[in-house]
Amino acid sequence: MNTTRLIIVAVGGQGNLLASRVLGEAALLSDIPVRMSEIHGMAQRGGVVESSIVFGDARSTVISDGEADVLIGFEPSETLRALNKCNLNTVVITNLAKLPSFTVTTGKSVYPDLDVLQELIRNKTAKLIAFDAASLAIKAGNVLSVNMVLLGALIQTHTVPLSAENVKEAIIKRTREAFVESNLKAFDLGFSAAQGLG
Amino acid sequence: MHKLLTEHSGLKMLLLGNEAIARGAVEAGVAVGTTYPGTPSSEISTNFFQMSRESDLYFEYSTNEKVALEVAAATANSGLRSMCVMKHVGMNVAADVFMTLAYIGVKGGLVIVTADDPYMFSSQNEQDNRYYSKFSGLPMVEPSSVQEAKDMVAYAFDISEKLQQPVIFRTTTRINHSTADVVLGEIKAPQTSGDISKDPFNQVPVPAVARNLHARLLKKLETAEKMSENSKYNFIMGNGVWGIICNGVSYNYVSDAAKDLNIEHRVKIFRMGFSYPMPRATIKQFLKECEKVLVVEEGEPFMEETVKMLAQEEKLTLPILGKSEKYFSRLYEFDPALVRQSMATCFDVAYTPAKVPDLSDIPEIPDRPPNLCAGCSHRATFYAVKKASEGMDTICPTDIGCYTLGFLPPLAMGDFLICMGASAGVSCGFSIKTNKKVISFIGDSTFFHSGIPGLINAVYNNHNFTMVILDNGTTAMTGHQPNPGVDMKELDIDGYGRVSIEEIVRAVGVSHVTVIRPYRVKKSIHAVKEALNFKGVSVVISKEMCTLYAKGLKKARGKPFFVSDKCKGHKNCINELACPAFYIENQRVNIDPVMCSGCSVCAQICPEHAILPIRDT
Ligand code: SF4
Ligand code: SF4
After folding, report:
1. For the domain B234-346, what is the CATH code?
2. Is the beta carbon of B217 within 6 A of some atom in ligand 2?
3. What is the atom index within ligand 1 of the atom nearest the CA of B480?
């Protein structure tokens, strides 16, 4: 079976690791080989969290520069930063809600313009799906469900070998009971948002 | 029930590498686990800690790695299967025990997990601990996958018991923090009691005994090598004449690359899983069947040196390549493309690397450096010390923990760092001839770990510095593990003692000891000033619970603060404190009420008294 390499970048606290776990669990449910790797050294202190997920027949859990098939960015400037992982065939999905770092919020550096950012990503990859996942998360009833919104968008693109049913089952299995309903709603909102975009 | 205690053997479960190791230990019937926490090994212990509360497993957070290994050495010599877990640099702390324990050996299995950190994702160096096996003469195994991380634990225990020697279980971050599906095996119930069979002429290594024990160690090493020759974890794949010798995660990159480059039929891959002692006879035979060999290993040329030596013994002249500018660096970690490229170069295979996009037109992306949490008590302490030492010429040695981040501006508190506990010793040294005021920072857990001997040295040798102990009631950096200063009853856990830092400090003879509450800014500055002016050793204990930890324990937090209209825009709060809850909008300073923990420190330093608590409406 072919391999699909997915990178997720996020800021500590955005629920990237949970999103990876859900995808891993969904792969397990669909009998698709999966291996993942995460770097979350100082995540709790506001740093960047990166996880790589490799579906299919491969042993590596790490994804080299230029070799991601899909990139999901939970935060637009982090998506841009991870562009070195992409190539002309990469599909990129990004949240457009900014989480400016402290250097930006205190006026010590400038946040890249969102239109320019999207244009750059679009030019250097196969496809960009960009939308405000944060507002959809709020609409789903849980600000913290940005991760589930983006998973919905991912599944809609058919870029990874997982079905919506399996991912939803994994969400039910893997996320806290109190949040299952809003998480599933977030997933659906993300799924529909990705339709017609990109 | 803890998920790693699931009985269903044969079940497939998605596990983190560290969970797999913990499960492997349970399947091997581990009776005792000990550790000092350290990334990337910490989750092994977290799981042990949780499981010990609902099973027969005994687990402890020991004060440091040396003690952890001493405890495990004794339980293993009481016949109990024991596992001692640490990060790579922890082995340096435990090395004194380790080197002589190699002479004494064990009765029940003892597996020592060392989690190395190539690229230093969360460490101060990237030492290659495989050398510890060669150094001590103890066998070593290295998994390449999450499944192996589980399976090889029981295997390591078996080797340990057959040889009556501790076995090193060496991982790297990319094993510890990888996740994959793992097929579970059967759980073996741990032995619940043990005893030493007294045998002083084998267990008390006075010189005359030690001379025999060293000879015995070398004998055991010969047996170990035979096991390594026959180990299923040292396997050869393929029949080609292009030889590749690899270990750990490198094996994954090599086998993927052989497929990607379409040279599976031309290579012969030797995966070393029982990697010390290396199976010399098998390697020699392997070399004879190859035209050229590439050794793929992260870190130092550990295998490469041995392989080259073996070729010399056999008078073989085939090229053996590895660490060099053309192939592999001794720095950092590998990745699939790097290994693919080196294999293509080495064996002269056509290969077009993936095209990385041209990034020259990407605007500068603001950094996202890690920062102390909003309301972190360390920030308050650093601020107080900074103010108290204004105008003084200072040197500030720091230590290992969240507070290391205090070296970043604007706090800029931290001039020198080596390893756990070193702040105390180096402060003694810096105070000798520099004529500057030395102020050192050390956390509670690090103080217990190895700060105390340095402090005793300071008192005894009459040094002159101020030690600031940042006592936030937890080991925050590695995920909030308890330490001897923590009141375990607060966590609803019985059966623990508690050690008071203040009593230790007084007991070792420090005459100027102050305890401050760092959120009381003025008082703290005043108290620190007094300590700084004291000639000799003074200690300031800054006591306030880690904010993040308090949040987790659902401890009541203060009300969040907001910036009122009285703000005149001095921005002292941002420029001096840099609490991440601040942001600027339309030229105005604001506080994010969700992030603000209500520590009130910014309110106390605002010259306009413009920062006020949000009132209930
Ligand atoms: S985890 Fe605790 S000690 Fe570490 S930065 Fe956050 S508040 Fe401070
Ligand atoms: S009170 Fe001030 S310093 Fe404390 S957390 Fe809130 S904004 Fe930060």
Report:
1. 3.40.50.920
2. no
3. 1
